[in-house]
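It would be a great kindness if you could assist me with a short task in structural biology. The matter concerns a single protein, recorded as an amino acid sequence and a row of backbone structure tokens. Could you please explain, in whatever detail you think fit, how the structure tokens follow from the sequence? Thank you for your consideration; the sequence and its tokens are set out here:
___
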Amino acid sequence: MKTTVKQLTAVTLIALLLLGGNGYAKGTQAKASSQETETTLQLEKWMTDESVWNSKSTFNFEIDQETETGLSLENWMTKAETWNLNTNFTKESESMMELENWMISEEIWNIENKTGETELALENWMTNENVWNR
């Protein structure tokens, strides 16, 4: 039953879209209230200047072949001390954890004997429409 209703709804929507999209609109061109005329184009000197448009004269695109120096091994590259990272670290020793009085105090950790918080009171500003709807 649900499937039939869904299919019928889908077919109806598609049909409405197709019918609505086939409308014929008249007068699609914008109508100008006054006729504007374009001025004639004038040829200026920079438009025909060869130095402006000749890319080789303004930009040097010639590619120069770069040469690299040969690779060579340096002393630090082959030294064992440079790459042995274990020698750079010193082992730290930690002291044992000490228990302090506040860590084992019954007054701090005994939650059952603590008095509860005071109940929140509803104040006028909390329900005032002028405060919240500005």
User: Anything to note?
Assistant: DSSP finds ten helices and no strands in the chain.
